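User: For my dataset I need records formatted as: sequence, then structure tokens, nothing else. Please produce one.
Assistant:
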Amino acid sequence: MRLYWLAVVALCAAAIAPPPAFAQRAARPAATPRVEFGGTGAVPARRGIVVSVSSFASDIGAATLARGGNAVDAAVATAFALAVTHPSAGNIGGGGFMVVRMASGEATTFDFREKAPLSATPTMFQTADGAIAYALTDSGWLSPGVPGTVHGMESAHARLGKLPWRSLVLPAAQLAAQGFPLSRALAADLNEQLLTTFAPFPSSMAAYGRRDGRAWRAGDRLRLPDLARTLRAIADSGARAFYTGWIADSLVQQMRDHGGAITARDLAEYRAVERAPLRGTYLGNDIIAMGPPSSGGVVLIETLNQLEALSAERFARGTPEFLHLRIEAARRAYLDRARYIGDPDFATVPLERLLSTQYADSLARSIDPARASRSVSLASDLDIATEPMETTHFSVVDAEGNAVSQTYTLEGGYGSGIVVRGTGFLLNNEMGDFNKKAGYTSTRGDIGTAPNLIAPGKRMLSSMTPVILARDDQLLLVTGSPGGRTIPNTVIDVVLGVTAFRQPVRAAVDAPRIHHQWLPDVTQFEVGAISTAAQFSLAEMGHLLRQRPAQSQGDAHSIWYDARTKTAYGAHDRRSPDGKASAAAVRRRAPASGKR
């Protein structure tokens, strides 16, 4: 039997030799445009659709579309609603990224990633002997970066929104005040947090604990009156209420009282940034992605460029031939993530080279068709030591075909665990996303390269990968995912499903996923992603594999758009039990008043 499998591996190796003429990449025929519907279980919509992790938030976003709002309006309303109904990642105390493509073809992105406080130092998370103090980055008053979500939502709305700002924020405020019934999953999660993450913080226990001290049960109503008050202030006065008003005063005072780093100046000077999107192509499809300080767009485009150079789409998805190339391409893209990517306002990121097809061709040539690379050996320029995820994404398409892909986060589940007393909102723990020790890169996944070292006012590196695909100047796909460093790989798998393997969006979202992030040098895969036979073949090639539970990697709430019929098909990821694709109802006339 062993000889049989070795023979199979040898045949596989011969079959997957890289195409000899990389220069002919542009001449290869592009994939046939897909015309099938979204697949069984996808929700069709002609008047717009919102797909998120929370049914309440999706419904609020869809109602915004029904009132005449566009995709940006619906994204803003959905984001504020998620701060109420999905407290582990939905937020006003965190940050993230929004990618927008208008029906006209205009595309832009909004970077509202958190920033390091101005008092931050490169060694603030090291002990006296130089060790990394992980406990300080995971929780507590030093772990938060300066929040960006509120300013980001206001910036996007001011630039591209239609409806009055107040009308977009008030539904979330009303939901927080009136409360909402807990699902079984959220009730169980809150009970766990009350025993762990929230336990050191009385304000968090007060905000999310039952008044009678008993455990939450499915169907119980969670009311958040302090958060409702904060959201009403933001609805009435915009971002300035959060960054300079009583909300800011409360945050700053509690930072002083507990040895935190965020000051009034940090808040007053925070600004979201509108940035040009990253552009790429894959099999004739146009990619619109987020650039640095998100690494997701670079990893996505660089990986797909390599796969196109290798003609990887000629292999079936679950074959060892395809999986070997898929893993090796991601390994190289994630290495470049570690080497080069950081806040572009602080570091020079060689985007033109990283995204070029010529560079992808050179990486593709370095892939041995029969053997796995060793991650450490690919990085001889780095000094590598040896030693023994919570975000949320939603997608929006409106009746005109305008689209928003937004991913935002508190970093860890429930962020720092701190509810700012009197305001009701949770603070992020994003400072842990910086490289915490210069020059220290370990096989466990710590990175010490210069572009992402801590500096005052700097935005920390992110893996968030909100992305929009178009074809022939028409919208095709809106997708993204949570999951820390797994995010780019989750999005790559969805994009490959829709493009290379021509799956309906429902099937592409449901398909099991894989993940390799350069270091640790191991390929993780959901149950069903790699067959037993393929596991044997990959192991013979030298791949280290680790199976993870079924449906445990990310939740890619996605929309596929049929430009011919102007129908959007929404597929919420079943990995999230409370998710929903909400189609807009009959459209009503928009209010005559201005945005404010």
